[in-house]
Amino acid sequence: MVNLTIDGKKYQAEEGQNVLEVALENGIEIPHLCYHENLSPYGGCRLCLVEVTRNGRAFLTTSCTYPCLDGIIVKTDTPEVLRARRLVLELLMPLAPEAPQLQALARQMEIEEPRFKTDEEADDCIRCGLCVRACTELVGAQAITFSGRGYRKTVEPPFGEEALDCIGCGTCVFLCPTGCIQMVDKSAERTIARWQRTLPLKACSSCGRYYIPFAQIEFARQKSREAPAEDWFDLCPDCR
Amino acid sequence: MNDANVYAVKSLTKKEYLAPGHRSCLGCGEVLAVRLVHKALGRNTITASATGCMEIVSSPFPLTSWEIPWIHVAFENAAAVAGGIEAALKVLERKGKIAPKDIHVVAMAGDGGTADIGLQALSGAMERGHKFLYVCYDNEAYMNTGVQRSSATPFGAHTTTSPAGEIVPGQITWKKNMPEIAVAHNIPYVATASPSYPLDLVNKIKKGAEAEGPAYVHILSVCPTGWGVGSEETIKIGRLAVQTGFFPLYEVENGRYRITVDCEELEPLERYLQPQRRFRHLTKEMIDFIRQRVLEQWEELKRRAGQTDPVAG
Predict the structure, then answer these.
(1) Which of A28, A178, B117, B180 qualifies as a FRET site for B15, CA 20 to 30 Å off?
(2) Domain spanning B11-308: CATH 3.30.365.10
(3) Are the C-beta atoms of residues A174 and B11 closer than 8 Å to each other?
């Protein structure tokens, strides 16, 4: 157990917890887009900036990647923190001007018009890496990855071609904070346009409903320690 | 969102706000919905609950399942109490007694507490424009008192106060269309959801909680006890209700309709009705009669979704 102070109140935290985790657990709100409790912290969106004072020195850092250490003092709403956070959001906004979550944050911070503009067309991706981490850590398919650096950084399938390892599970679609990844099911086909992937779907042999991509069945067979029965995937969960 | 997704559900929080050990029936769809709703809302939530199954099973004196502030109020005023909580939070914030914070105020009630007894309180709260989320857990009758009919009971269903006999075929009125009543109040967000489509439900609750004003989410909760289905069939029946067009899943955002779980072809209605004991007396003619109404409503919904937003149609 370590003791730390957040916004003037003393809290106890488990060894190895991050500042953001403890703050959220105790009902202190810090805006964040790239943090997810079931994924490893990444510090990509920079919105969760806080002021940490350790050994008498204060500095700004991302609370999602900063560990709880004994005796640190965290402040989440100093003028410096709020100004830095505001700048971060203003820099994020041109990347995804239409995203409702960013707009809600902008309303909260009273930003009317973002200061910055980009020359390139916005692709609605804010490079938070939730999709990449989910694909690696939750699913294990590793179909997409970051490529490029700096302002050229994008999330892409390998070589920018069809994501051959994508199993069409849609976890990235669910987690994306801006909704820039879309998945469309049309009769026997599922399309995730952003990963240039079109997957054939398997129909249930009893009710005839298309319910799972063939690639996902193959993936499940490879990953499971005990191979499921040969005809296990013939029936959808409702007909089993 | 696809319902057979086994990976995306791993991203839901592992924290439980409705503790296990409550006293709901085996296979209760409603308690599953409550659990998912509060997983979606998170810790900063205050819930006002009307009388009903969920109040009975989660708070038998002196115990409680709730890990968040939760208040049980009378049958008719869950929405009024939620409105009051929201107003009180606003005042406390204005006076500087609490720091400004995004606290979700939620009212929850069953179909009786929403469509019958709590309707005027709900209508008033929606009209006044409180920023709160109203969740109706609709199991289509007064289940905890022993399956009495409510105005949300579907046509033809057998309940103890609408018994099916030789002359009267169970419930003789159509189900009250609560989501449409909510839409008619011009509130920012209205949706229907089902715990059989958990990711869709979580998305809708999150959207509703963030709406700038009242939000209404109507959740069809399968009740194995009252509907006469096996407790292992809950999820399947919930899914069939959607796939047969009996309970379509859609959302209305600022007046724009969108069907969230689209069915290219509806399943035959018999697949939904026949496994349920409350519908077992229905003759073929009556099923056709119900089918006609279901198809009409489905077409009407598709028309609205298509007309107001050509992309989603």
Answers:
(1) A178
(2) no
(3) yes
Res B108: pLDDT:
96
Average pLDDT over residues B279-305: 94
DSSP character string of A138-195:
II-----EEES-GGG-EEESGGGS--TT-----HHHHH-SS----EEEETTEEEEGGG
Angle subtended at Cα B4 by Cα A232 and Cα A98, rounded to the nearest 5 degrees:
155
Does B5 touch chain A if contact means CB atoms closer than 8 Å? yes
3-state secondary structure of A55: coil
**Taking every pair of C-alpha atoms in chain A, what is the biggest distance, in angstroms?**
69
Test mutation, B1, B5, B16, B254, chain A, max A CBs within 10 A: B5
Chain-chain contact of A169 with B11 (C-beta, under 8 angstroms)? no
Take residue B28 and report the two structure tokens written for it: 């209760």
Q: Is-contact B105 B78, C-beta < 8 A?
A: no
Q: In a 3-state reduction of DSSP, which class is residue A81? A: helix
Q: Which residues contact B218 (CB under 8 A, 6 or more apart)?
A: B136, B138, B178, B179, B182, B190, B191, B192, B193
Is-contact B272 B237, C-beta < 8 A?
A: yes
Per-residue confidence of chain A (240 residues) as pLDDT tens digits? Answer: 899 999 999 999 998 899 999 999 888 889 999 999 999 999 989 999 999 999 999 999 999 999 999 999 999 989 999 999 999 999 999 999 888 889 889 988 888 888 888 887 888 899 999 999 999 999 998 999 999 988 888 998 988 888 889 998 889 998 999 989 988 888 788 999 999 999 999 888 888 888 889 998 888 888 888 877 778 888 887 777
The domain segmentation of chain B, as residue ranges, is 11-308
Chain A residues whose beta carbon lies within 8 Å of the beta carbon of residue B243: 209
Domain ranges of chain A: 2-108, 130-234
Cβ–Cβ below 8 Å for A170 and B2: yes
B98 to chain A, any CB pair closer than 8 A? The answer is no
Cα–Cα nearest to B311, from B262, B242, B244, B246: B262
- Tell me which chain B residue has its CA closest to the CA of residue A141: B7
Q: What is the tens place of the pLDDT at every residue in B99-121?
A: 888 899 999 999 999 999 999 99
Q: CATH class for domain A2-108? A: alpha beta
CA-nearest residue to A171 within chain B is B8
- In chain A the first and final C-alpha atoms are separated, in Å, by 47
> What is the value of pTM for the model shown?
0.91
ipTM topping 0.95: no
Q: Is the dihedral of CA B17, B19, B20, B24 positive or negative?
A: negative
